């Protein structure tokens, strides 16, 4: 769900698209322009149908954007830091850097999206009615009516009480208000999301196996995404309240950035039990991070010529944090950076004091689950998945 192209800003909120959005836009445009519209309204030139299909796809993506903007604008008004909006294959996602402050805020922010979809559906329905009066039945009425129905379905689907859907956020807010514990509420909503996602996958398998329907593949894809996103939310919820300083590996081995890669292998890799090495320049500042996997990808014939800094991840692209900050906040910054899921930790004086790796995070989750047995035996195990999945996002 990473951003491929930045479109700009709307109401001060960054908006981008992932390349996969072209897939859904193409399917809609061709499905209407080549399939449905010529059958329903024969007699028009072929380019007319294609133009109508393209416009329908553009309006559909616009309605998704309106849905996400409703989340993002209200979130910002309620004090939640908004990273931006990305449109992709399965719709859109509003990314938040922080959490809602109260259960009421959580519910309001989550409900804003479906409410906007219903408003858009009403506007489209009114437009279709006006088109009937002015033009009679035709392509315009069909396209507007189709988009209106689609927005109603979008709103209803998102109200299903399963994270990361909007209904799951609303459920989280309700459970949070009842228990007073946002982490426990998030875990419950995420588990509901995983169960719903598994049900979608099972239904998709049945459609493919029994009816030989390609619609089953979409259900399986959607179910897989929901299961993955819900699992990431549960992972993060289980780490709420854990500090970076409690997780990080302290006093990491630092190597000079000016030595040849082969020297680094001989003097550090072969003598230290480390899989990643922060690099320090002549001036004493940390200049980058060099994972062992990057060294392995460097041909042996080039290791005597290239210096460590030549193949390292520069510090500008490495996630950094402070020992006292919340671990989940740091994990949000890890996404999209180089360093293979690792982050460097600096103290108030700017000195490197630790490094956080995916293994450290998984270990912290295991220990945190053991301290809280009431959340169930399932929390006491981990599969080592990358903990930097979707978080703080309302998705479709």
Descriptive overview:
This protein is of the alpha+beta class. The protein is 55% helix and 14% strand. The chain contains 13 helices and 13 strands. It has a five-stranded mixed sheet with strand order 1-2-3-4-13. A hairpin with a 5-residue loop joins strand 7 (276-280) and strand 8. The longest helix has 33 residues, at 103-135. The termini are close together.
Topology:
Elements lengths: L4 E6 L2 E5 L3 H20 L5 H32 L4 E7 L2 E6 L6 H33 L3 H20 L7 H14 L2 H29 L4 H23 L6 H4 L1 E2 L4 E2 L4 H9 L6 E5 L5 E6 H6 L10 H4 L1 E2 L4 E3 L5 H8 L8 E4 L5 E5 L1 H14 L21 E3 L1
Parallel strand pairs: 2-3, 6-7, 10-11
Antiparallel strand pairs: 1-2, 3-4, 4-13, 5-12, 7-8, 8-9, 11-12
Helix pairs in contact: 1-2, 2-3, 2-4, 3-4, 3-5, 5-6, 6-7
Tell me the strand percentage band.
5-15%
Unreliable residue stretches: 373-396
Rounded mean pLDDT score: 88
Shape summary: globular
Give me the oligomer status. single chain
Radius of gyration: 25 Å
Work out the helix count: 13
SSE topology string: EEHHEEHHHHHHEEHEEHHEEHEEHE
Largest sheet: 5 strands, mixed
Output the keywords.
CBS-domain, alpha+beta, disordered C terminus, globular, 13 strands, four-stranded mixed sheet, 396 residues, 3 domains, 55% helix
